[in-house]
Design brief:
Blueprint (H helix, E strand, L loop, with lengths): L22 H12 L1 H15 L2 H16 L6 H14 L3 H18 L2
Helix pairs in contact: 2-5, 3-4
Length: about 110
């Protein structure tokens, strides 16, 4: 059947606003509502400080600023350079501990 020239096509039954949340979105909502997300963030901060990751990233930032010159570096430049390095250098033990805590939470939340 040819669509009418005078009116737009009928939208799908579900609008974008009514989409069902993804599993990741549901988990994030549960983490926030329970306060577990904030506890996990605090644990991550503590572990990264303990293992020297924070100091290492600070040193990389300072080295980058010295190399480029203080007046030639923007925050966006710094973020673009440091973010991939920072993510790649998080110790596996820290990742494993966080993953275990998330799994335990999901087990208790029955998701």
């Amino acid at each position: 059947m040819r669509p009418s020239v005078n009116r737009p096509p009928t939208p799908d039954v579900r609008d974008d606003n009514e989409k069902e949340p993804s599993l990741q979105e549901i988990i994030n909502i549960k983490l926030i509502e329970s306060g577990e997300k904030e506890r996990l963030m605090e644990l991550l901060r503590e572990r990264l400080i303990e293992c020297g990751w924070k100091d290492e990233m600070k040193a990389h930032c300072r080295a980058f600023v010295r190399k480029k010159g203080r007046d030639n570096v923007t925050v966006d430049d710094l973020i673009d350079v440091i973010t991939p390095m920072g993510r790649a250098s998080i110790p596996n033990s820290v990742k494993a501990e966080l993953l275990e805590r998330i799994r335990a939470f999901l087990g208790q939340a029955a998701l």
